[in-house]
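Forgive a beginner's question, but might I ask you for the amino acids of a protein and the tokens describing how it folds?
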Amino acid sequence: MVDEATYREACELKYNYAYGIDLRDWDLYRSILADELVIDFRSIGYRDVMHITADAWIAEVRKLMDGLDASHHQMSGCIVTEDATHGADELVMRTYVTAQHILRTPSRADRFYQIGGWYDDRLRCIDGTLRFTRITLNQTWAWGDSAVMKDAARRGRDIAN
């Protein structure tokens, strides 16, 4: 088990993950990530586990998020433990998530897509601060208009160009 201060720091890191995405505060989002990441989003359609730089991951996330009109990631139930093989050098965290995605289209009602599940993450202390080194999303359910995500990604690419 980790001490209370470490637990609080790890949970706040996950909350900043949500704030960074939802507020489109890419500097905040970058501040919580290690320079090199392992991302496993296969549960939402990515084909492979990615070994990627933080900046490349942020560019990937922005392709979708910048195309949405709003999002709301709600995190709860943080469980933080020391990794059995690395001890205090590496933490393992599970956090439940519900994420709402909203797309507004002229002359139509707002379109919503919501997912739920949990994150399994790994964190490491780098230069005195906890950072995510691995982020795994385990989506277990979805509700609403799944086309919101494709339409938002298309809109996000148009914004970038």
